[in-house]
Amino acid sequence: MNIGLKSSAYSSWSTLTSNIARTCSSNSDCGYYLAGVDYGFSCRVGTLHTHYANSEAYTNLGSYSSSTVMRVEVDGTTVTWKVDGVVRMTKSLSHSLPLNVFATAHNVDSCSPQVADAALTVV
């Protein structure tokens, strides 16, 4: 699962959203596993990572459970990643606002998408 914020000014935003409705054959096929999230989280086989700088495993945050609360927030020019209310990482905002929410869910064995949505814009 990858979820986070993506700049609405991203030049390939329409390509990312049009690929949601189709089945992808690999991680790179749809173009959104690395590029779909600027600031977010990646949940991979029981390990939680920050998703940042086109890396879905930028920082290993350890394990997570179904009750873990993950939050990415933008305040001014600061992006903060929180897990269960604890700040785990901060970075300077390097993308223009507004930001869209983008999420992908895929089968961990085959990496083919099962569910995705891109309907919310954060300003």
Brief description of this entry?
This protein is mainly beta and 123 residues long. The protein has one domain.
Global outline: globular
Distance between the termini: 23 Å
How many domains would you count in the coordinates?
A: 1
Order of helices and strands: EHEEEEEEEEE
* Low-pLDDT windows of residues: 109-123
The Cα radius of gyration reads 14 Å
Secondary-structure-derived class: mainly beta
Into which percentage range does the β-strand content fall? over 45%
Q: Oligomer, anyone?
A: single chain
Q: Please give the share of residues in helix.
A: under 10%
Average pLDDT figure: 79
The strand count comes to: 10
Largest sheet: 7 strands, antiparallel
Give descriptors for this structure.
disordered C terminus; globular; 7-stranded antiparallel sheet; mainly beta; 3-stranded antiparallel sheet; 123 residues
Describe the structure.
The protein is mainly β and 123 residues long. The protein has one domain (2-122). It is built from 1 helix and 10 strands. It is globular and about 35 Å long. The two termini are 23 Å apart. The model is unreliable at 109-123 (pLDDT under 50).
Secondary structure layout:
Blueprint: E1 2-7, H1 13-19, E2 39-44, E3 47-52, E4 55-63, E5 70-75, E6 78-83, E7 86-92, E8 99-106, E9 113-117, E10 121-122
Antiparallel strand pairs: 1-2, 1-8, 2-3, 3-4, 5-6, 6-7, 8-9, 8-10
